[in-house]
Design a protein that fits this description.
Helices cover 35% and strands 20% of the residues. It is α/β, with parallel strands linked by helices. The strands form two sheets. A six-stranded mixed β-sheet has the order 6-7-8-3-9-10, with helices on both faces. Helix 5 packs across helix 7, helix 5 runs parallel beside helix 8 and helix 7 crosses helix 8. The N terminus is likely disordered. The structure holds adenosine-5'-diphosphate and magnesium ion. Magnesium ion binds next to helix 3. The site of magnesium ion has 3 residues, from helix 3.
């Protein structure tokens, strides 16, 4: 009956309350590069005022002719777009259009078959995931990935740890600096929990948080890495309308705080109210790009969404 249908019902989005990251998705304390003990490189990495090379309104990220093939399947077909500094860019399209693949290509999970990504004035090239995190791109996942046995606060501090200055010996001998950093990380972690609205659950194990709280916690953890670009993959999946609108408020607040946001969503109505610009994918190709009101009236976009249940359309 319908051309595209939601791949996941709310239940299947998150069958288990929490799943552990399979591998090196997040930078763990023991993986911190010892060269980060060098104060100069550290300053570049931890600068709380995120130092960004590009000017306001310039492209923070430019994806150029991105193509991603899986065997015979072309999941991304020659896709070119910019994310301007300070904007909320919506990446929309029916299920299977290539949105998550695009995220994965930008965040180092996949190496694109061809094409380039420039970020903050430099190519992302062949960087590994944790190196891309350090360059300033953070993301959340369509399926929640948290450390279920850790507290909410610990989950956020793990993100902060990626920015720690203390070298491994410093941590082992518990230097003054190490304690100070630990205290700073906890304070910052609490501030982030408050920012996303789950501070009351700080010492609860992540697995015991409600689904909505887990989604917010994931955002706090991504923010803990001090990203220049925050990528959210269907952060409102499985939410009811009032939860969705509260989450859009949070995303606006994040942008007001100076972050640039890339927001994946297949619910068109949801992105209309929050995004500055929208890029539309269908079958791996970019079929439209522009301000929300133009995109909504674009015949190619309307056709792409034909047959999609009403609640996914404006
Ligand atoms: N790792 C993979 N291996 C093979 N095919 C994949 C892989 N990841 C995604 N795909 C395929 O690429 C297409 C786009 O998927 P995806 O990016 O997840 O779409 P969206 O996020 O827009 O729903 C789909 O046909 C999907 O089956
Ligand atoms: Mg997806």
């Amino acid at each position: 009956m319908s051309k595209h249908y939601p791949e996941q019902s709310p239940e299947s989005v998150n069958p288990e309350p929490v799943e552990l990251p399979p591998e090196d998705v997040y930078v763990r304390p023991e993986e911190i590069d010892p060269t980060l003990a060098d104060p100069e490189s550290v300053a570049a990495v931890v600068a709380p005022q995120r130092e960004i090379q590009t000017e306001e309104g310039d492209a923070l990220l430019s994806a150029h002719n991105l193509t991603m093939r899986f065997g015979g399947l072309v999941a991304l077909d020659d896709v070119t777009f910019d994310i301007n500094r300070g904007e909320i860019l919506g990446l929309i399209g029916p299920n299977g259009a290539g949105k998550t693949t695009c995220f994965n290509a930008l965040t180092g999970v996949y190496r694109p078959t061809s094409g380039t990504v420039m970020f903050d004035g430099k190519p992302l090239g062949r960087l590994k995931r944790h190196e891309i995190t350090r360059r300033g791109i953070a993301r959340t996942f369509q399926n929640i990935r948290l450390f279920g046995e850790m507290t909410a606060l610990e989950n956020v501090v793990v993100g902060t740890d990626a920015r720690h200055k203390t070298s491994v010996p410093g941590a082992v001998f518990r230097s003054k600096r190490h304690f100070r950093e630990e205290r700073d990380a906890i304070e910052r972690g609490m501030a982030l929990l408050e920012f996303v609205g789950v501070e009351a659950r700080a010492v609860e194990k992540a697995r015991n948080l409600s689904y909505g709280e887990q989604r917010r916690l994931e955002i706090a953890r991504a923010l803990a890495t001090e990203p220049k670009l925050l990528c959210l993959d269907e952060p409102a999946a499985g939410f009811n309308p009032s939860e969705k609108s509260a989450l859009m408020d949070l995303i606006r607040k994040i942008r007001e705080d100076g972050y640039t946001v890339l927001l994946i969503e297949h619910d068109m109505r949801l992105v209309m109210g929050v995004t500055d610009r929208i890029v539309v994918l269908e079958f791996g190709r970019k079929i439209a790009e522009g301000p929300p009101k133009d995109v909504r009236e674009n015949p190619a976009v309307i056709a792409a969404y034909l047959g999609v249940p009403d609640d996914a359309i404006a």
